[in-house]
Amino acid sequence: MNERMKQRLIDPFVLPLIVIGITVGLIMTMGETLLAMFQPGDTKDRLDRPELWGALVLAIAIIGIAGFLATRPQGTTGPLERDVVIGKRPFFEEPLPPIETRARTGQPGQVADIQPGFTLYAQNGALAEVVGMLPGASDFGKRFAGFIYGKGLYGASDELWIPFEAVMTVYPETRSAFLAIKGDETEHFGWNVPPESVRRGPARRPDETL
User: Fold this and answer.
1) Sign (positive/negative) of CA torsion 91, 95, 99, 103?
2) Judgement on whether residues 70 and 117 belong to the same structural domain of the protein
3) Based on the domain organization, do 160 and 105 belong to the same domain?
4) Spatial distance between the Cα atoms of 109 and 210, rounded to a whole number of angstroms
5) Per residue in 26-69, pLDDT tens?
6) What CATH number has the domain bearing residue 172?
7) Spatial CA neighbour of 180 closest among 191, 194, 196
8) Phi, psi of 145, rounded to the nearest 5 degrees
9) What is the radius of gyration, based on Cα positions, of the chain?
10) Is 122:176 a contact under the CB 8 Å cutoff?
């Protein structure tokens, strides 16, 4: 979904509807509660009416809570003092840049700078979170400088073993690394299977991908 359309058209309409729905629900709940407290009597002008006392206590409680919050010193009411109480950004603030743009911030680094917790990005978005690094080994009959062991994100394989050679750029400041792949070919490359140095089984054939 287009971020600008969501921010400019959907959020300003959906959020007020949600607030209205919550308000109506609270009013109905309080009304039903007071009606349930009603007890018929000889006359309506009497003091022994539980629903009236209940409404009075509720009104005093609301006024008391609002007055208490209004008189608190600055910095003591937490999120109530924020400019944006619900959500993260104002309705008409310019949309944030794509995640890839934000991640490409700072001085580029090297593969050796990658550490656990880094996010690996493919061409179509975040692919995996780095769990650890493995030393170089042979796999598919080829020698690789090393492997990045990662946890797949957003539907990618739960475990990935990505060769160092697939890393295009590294940005230590944002703990991000970019891979020279589109993002949907990890199984085709066999990255969802541990390299031969990790497995106990026989070496894979060059034509084996899974």
Assistant:
1) negative
2) no
3) yes
4) 32
5) 999 988 888 888 777 656 666 777 888 888 898 999 899 988 88
6) 2.30.30.240
7) 191
8) -70, -25
9) 30
10) no
Instruction: Kindly report the length of the chain.
Output: 210
Query: For 108-166, how does the pLDDT look when each residue is reduced to its tens digit (9 = 90+)?
Result: 999 989 999 999 998 878 888 999 998 888 776 778 888 999 988 887 788 898 899 88
Instruction: Give the domain extent around 128.
Output: 100-189
Residue 208: helix, strand or coil by DSSP?
coil
10 and 2 Cβ atoms separated by less than 8 Å: no
- Look at the block and give the residue holding tokens 């650890």: 132
Residue 132 to residue 151: CA distance in whole angstroms: 10
Strands (E) located in the chain = 119-122, 125-139, 142-152, 159-163, 167-171, 176-179
CA dist list (Å): 140 to 56, 136, 185: 79, 13, 16
Go through 61-83 and write b for each residue having 16 or more CB atoms within 10 A of its CB, e for each that does not. Answer: eeeeeeeeeeeeeeeeeeeeeee
207 found inside a domain: no
